[in-house]
Amino acid sequence: MTKIAILGFGTIGQGLAEVIATNSEKIKAQCGGIEIKYVLDLREFPEHALGGRVVHDFNIILNDPEIKIVCEMMGGSHPAYDFSLKALNSGKGVVTSNKEVVANFGPELLKAASDNNTRYLFEASVGGGIPIIRAMTDSLRGNEICEINGILNGTTNYILTQMKSSGKSMSEALACAQSLGYAEADPSADIDGVDACRKICILSAIAFGTLVPSVKVDTVGIRNITTQDISDAEKNDSSLKLVARATKLPDGTISMSVSPTFVRNDNPLAAVNDVFNAVLVRGNTLGDVMFYGKGAGSLPTASAVLADVIDLVLCEGHQPKQQLWERCENVISSLPSDAFSDYIGRVGTPIAH
Amino acid sequence: MTKIAILGFGTIGQGLAEVIATNSEKIKAQCGGIEIKYVLDLREFPEHALGGRVVHDFNIILNDPEIKIVCEMMGGSHPAYDFSLKALNSGKGVVTSNKEVVANFGPELLKAASDNNTRYLFEASVGGGIPIIRAMTDSLRGNEICEINGILNGTTNYILTQMKSSGKSMSEALACAQSLGYAEADPSADIDGVDACRKICILSAIAFGTLVPSVKVDTVGIRNITTQDISDAEKNDSSLKLVARATKLPDGTISMSVSPTFVRNDNPLAAVNDVFNAVLVRGNTLGDVMFYGKGAGSLPTASAVLADVIDLVLCEGHQPKQQLWERCENVISSLPSDAFSDYIGRVGTPIAH
Q1: A144-197 confidence digits (pLDDT tens)
Q2: Catalytic residues of B, which ones?
C-alpha cells in the first residue's frame, strides 16, 4: 500500500479520491493499492469521508517519510510550484494536473526531479483524460515529431459547435456554456486562447525539448468570431476551430500559434465537436495519429492523475530518466503561410496577453 | 549501442531498418543507439545496405549473447511463434508486429517472458502506428475498461468509404483497393473480418486479461454489403462501418463481435474514413477516448516496433511485469441488443471461420 498526499481538494482532488475508491480492486491488482493519507486544503471537509485527513500545513506532508507521492491539484502558480519543488527536492514523486505550473516552471521541476532520482508527471495537465503526454513521451519515441495541431480547450470548442449547429451568436453560445458549467464567470482564459496556449507550450516542450514561454506565442481567441465566420468556413467545406499548433521548421525554429482556423472537413480535427479535445501529432516516419477524448471533467482528469501515480509506484527504486526542457527565450515566428497544408486560413489577429 | 536481430525482412522488417536509419540521432539520444546485427530471412538481399547481415539459421541469433532483442516480423504462426518462444526462454526481449501469433499464442509467450524476466511487446500488432496497446496498458491503468469499439481493418474501411463517396459496388471498390495495394489478391482475411477479429481479441485480452479464441467470436465481414446498405445507413444519419467490439457485461461475461454496423454520425468512429483505423475505448471513470491513425503501412508499423524496442532498452535489468492472459474457452455470447447505445444496428449474419 503506497501512501500519497493530495494538495488541493477541489474538483479534481475530490475526483481523484473518488476514482481511487471506485477502482480500488483494479489498483490493488496493479500496484498493491494506494491510500490517501493527507489532504492539504485551506478549507475543512467535515462531510467528506476523507475529512479527518485534512491538514493545513504542507510541512506535515513534506516531513512524513511515509509519503512517497504528492498529487498537486491546487491550480495557480503559487504555492503550487513551491510545494512541488520542495516535494521533489525531498525525493518524493510529484503528479500534477496544473497546466499553469507546468507551462511556467516545467524546466525547474523536471530538473529537480532528475536531481533527486524521482519524476514530475503531468499527464492530466493537457487534454484531461486523453493519454497524450505518455503517448508522445513513450509511444512516439524514435520518431521526430514534425507538427502538433490540437483542439485543446473544451469551452471554446463547445461555443463554436453551438454557433454552428444552432446559429447562436458568440455571446449567446457563451451564456449557454456558462449555464452548463462549461465556462467560468470570467471566461477570458478560455475565450482569449490563453488556456489552449499553455497546453500547446507543454506539448511542444515534450516534442522538441524546448519550452516556449506562453506570452511569446501568437494567440488569437474566439471573442470576435461571428456567425458570418462560421458560415464562411462552411462555404469552404471547412469547420471553424480554435487550433493550437506547434511546428518545427526546417531551420530548427519552433513556430507556434493559437488561432481560429478554417479546418478542412477531411481533416479529422474538423469532426471534433462539443467539449471534446483532440490532438493530431505528425511523426516523420509514423505519419498522423490523433488522440481524442473529454479534455476536462473531474473523473477523466483524475483518471489521468491516477495513471501517473501508478506509474510512479511501479517504478519505485528505478524511476526512468525524464527528458529535461530547455527554456527558449528567442523570438518565435508565427507560422508561414505555406505551412497550412491541411488548412485554408486563420481568422483574426493576435491578442496581447 | 544495443544489438538487435530482425526476423523476416519483408515490408515491415525493411521498414524497421529504414526508420532506425532515418531517426538514428533521435534514437541515440534516447537510448544510446540501436544496431541491427542480423537479419533472418530465407532470401538474400544483395542490394540492401544490410545484405551482409542476412542469416538463414535462427540459432546464430539465439546463441549470440550480444543480441538482447529480437524483432519478429515474419507473419504466420510458425515458425514465428517457435522462434519467439525460444528467444524469450533464452532471456531475450521479443517485439512483434505479428497479430496472428499474439492472438493465437499470447498467453504462452507472455508467460515465457515473465518467467525469464523479460518482456513480449506487440504494439505494432494492432492499429499499425497508433499507440493503442501502450495506452491501454499504461495510461488507462487504474480504470476498469468497459467497452472497446474499433475500426481495425484499413482495407475494409477503404472499400466502405469508396462505396459511400463514389457509389461503387463492393466488387468495384475491392478492385480499386487491390490496384492501390490496399488489398491482397486473396482479400478474404480482410473482407470476411478475420483480421479485425484477431485484433479485437488482442485488445480485449489487454482490457480484460482473458484471451478469447478468434474462432469463437461472432464475425461478419463486408462481402455481402450492397450500395443499398450504404444508403440505408445514410438515411438513418449513420455511416456503415466494420466495427469490432468487446464489452464486459455486468455478470463478467466478455461479449465480442465483428460486424458491419450503422454508426451514428455523432459517434467519432463515423468520421474515420479511407485506410485509417480508430479505437474507441470506454473506461469506467475516464469516459470515452479515441485513438486514430494509419492502421497499416511499412513506416508507421515499424515506428511502433521501434518504440517497443526502445522501451526494452530503457528498462534493461528491470523490465516491468506484464499482465498475463488467461485463455477463455467458454461460450461467448454475441452482443445483447441493448448494448448498442451508440449504434442503431448490425448488418448481416455471422460467418463460420
Answers
A1: 999 999 999 999 999 999 999 999 999 999 999 999 888 888 999 999 999 999
A2: 199
Asked if B254 and B147 touch (Cβ cutoff 8 Å), the reply is no
Q: Which residues on A lie below 8 Å from B273 (Cβ)?
A: 266
> A48-55: which pairs have CB atoms within 8 A and are 24 or more residues apart?
A48/A9, A48/A14, A48/A17, A49/A17, A49/A21, A50/A9, A50/A17, A54/A9
Give A310 to chain B, closest Cα distance, Å.
Answer: 8
Q: Evaluate whether A6 touches A16 at the Cβ level (below 8 Å).
A: yes
For residue B267, pLDDT over 90 is answered with no
Do B7 and B40 form a contact (C-beta atoms < 8 A)? yes
Sign of CA dihedral A30, A33, A38, A43: positive
| Strands B287-294, A287-294: pairing kind | antiparallel
pLDDT of residue A350: 58
Whole-structure pTM value: 0.92
Query: CA-to-CA distance for B153 and B130, rounded, in angstroms?
Result: 13
Q: Do B134 and A139 touch (CB under 8 A)?
A: yes
| Residue B351 distance to chain A (closest CA, Å) | 32
Most A CBs within 10 A among B122, B123, B139, B140, hence the mutation to make, goes to: B139
- Chain A CB contacts of B318 below 8 Å: 318
Q: Do B291 and A292 touch (CB under 8 A)?
A: yes
Q: Do B318 and A318 touch (CB under 8 A)?
A: yes
Question: Rounded to a whole number, what is the distance in Å from the CA of A221 to chain B's nearest CA?
Answer: 25
Written as nine digits, the cell of B63 is: 546463441
